[in-house]
Amino acid sequence: MSQTKVEAPFVENNRPFRNKIINGDMSIAQRATAATTVGNSTVTTLDRIVTQHSSDGAWTGEQHAMSLTDINTTGQSFAYEANCTTADGTIGAAQYALVSQRIEGQFLQDLRYGTSNAKTITVSFWCKSNLTGTFSLYLYKLDTTGYYIPNEFSISSANTWEYKTVTITPTAGSTTLITSSGGVIDNNNGASLEVGIVLAMGSNYQGTNSTWTSSSHYTTSNQANFLSSTDNNFSFTGFQLEIGDAATDFEHLPFDVNLKRCQRYCEVLCDTRSAGTGTFSSGDSDESLGTVGVCHGTRYAYMPFRFSTAKRSNAPTLLISNDTNHFNLINTLTNDKFSTMTSSGVHSHSTAETYFDTGSTGNLTNGATGFVRSDVSGSKILVLDEL
Asked: Virtual CA dihedral for 121, 41, 160, 17, nearest 10 degrees?
C-alpha cells in the first residue's frame, strides 16, 4: 500500500502565544464580574484590564456574558462593558477616560524595538457602542524614552459589533524614534508597553494620528466623548496584539492556561460565599477559607499561604477586601476562640502569611491548629502584583 505525504496548509504567524495581550477574551474576572465603579489606574473587574479615569463623570465596568448571536459574530463568550453613570459633557484639557493593559518588557523582546529591524505590529478587537464616531487605540512605550502613538478607528453603526484592526509600523509618521536607541525595550519584568482604547480625552493629550511622538498624545482632536451621556456604553473583546502587518484569528487559550497567566498579577487566596456564624462547631463549612496555621503561644497565630502561581516580582501586595476585621481565627481545639486578623505580609514570589493577635494571653492553645473564617459574604484575600 503506497503512502502519500500531505503537506499541512500554510498559516501565516501561527505560532503559540503570539498574542501579547493577556485575557483578551475577557474570560477571567477574579475580583468581580458585576458592574463596579472604576477608578484611576486600577483593575476592578476583568483581570489585566486597567481603567484610567480623571473627569467629572463616572462609569462602571463589568464582565458581559455574550448572547449566542454575539458569539456567532465575534467568536467570544465574554466582553468588557463600560457604562457611563455620571455624564461629563465637557472634557477638561487634562481629563481622560480609557481602558488599557501594560505588558512586561521580557515578553516584548521579539519586537526588536530600538533597532533598525523593529517589527510592525497589528492590534485587533471587536467593539460595540451606542455612540458612533471616532475613537482611538494607542500605544505608549515606557522604557528608555517614552514614546506614544494614537491611532483612530471609527464606530460607524450603533449597537453593532464591528471588527477593528490597527497596524502600527515602527516608523509611522515618517519617524525614527522606535528604530533609534530611544526605542529600546528593557528585558525585565517591568511595564514596558501600554496598549489601550480611549473613551474620552482632553486637548492636552491630543496629537497627530498614526505618528510616533515623545509628547503624551493618546488620541486626536476627533475623539468622541463616551462620558457625554448616561445612555452611553462601550464594549470590546477579542483584544489581540501580535507581530505582523495583518491580523490573524484570535488566539484562544485554554481557560486554565489563561487563568494561570492572570494569576501572575492577581490571585484570590481565599473567598467566602456567605457570612460565617462564628463557631467551628456550627457546620457552616462554606465559610471556611481553607488556610490552616499554628497557634504560637496562647495569644498569637500565623496562617501561611502558598501561591498557586509565582508572582511577577518578589514584592507583591496582600489585599484584604472588606477590611481585616471581618476575618477571624477559629482555634480547632476550643472551637469558638476568636482573633481578628491584625496584619499580613508577603515574603516572596510564592508565599505570604496573615497574622492574628487575640489581645489576651491564654485565649489560644499553644501548638494547636486553626483556620480562617469571615463574617462577611464575599470577603476575599488576594495577592496583587499588577504592572
From this structure: 40
Residues 278 and 158 in one domain: no
CA distance 250 to 197: 18
Phi, psi of 245 (to 5 degrees): -100, 15
Measure the CA angle with vertex 85, ends 79 and 91; round to 5°. 100
Grid coordinates in use for 48? Answer: 489585566
Q: Which residue has the higher pLDDT, 176 or 318?
A: 176
**Distant-in-sequence, close-in-space partners of 327: CB < 8 Å, separation ≥ 6:** 289, 320, 340, 341, 354, 372, 373, 374, 379, 381
- Domain assignment present for residue 28? The answer is no
CA 342 to chain centre: 29
Q: Are residues 133 and 182 in the same domain?
A: yes
- Give residue-wise pLDDT tens across range 29-62: 999 999 999 999 999 999 999 999 999 999 999 9
Are 204 and 117 in contact, with CB atoms under 8 Å apart? Answer: no
Residues 6+ apart with CB under 8 A from 284: 274, 276, 277
Q: Coil, helix or strand for 306? A: strand
Q: Do 56 and 187 reside in the same domain of the chain? A: yes
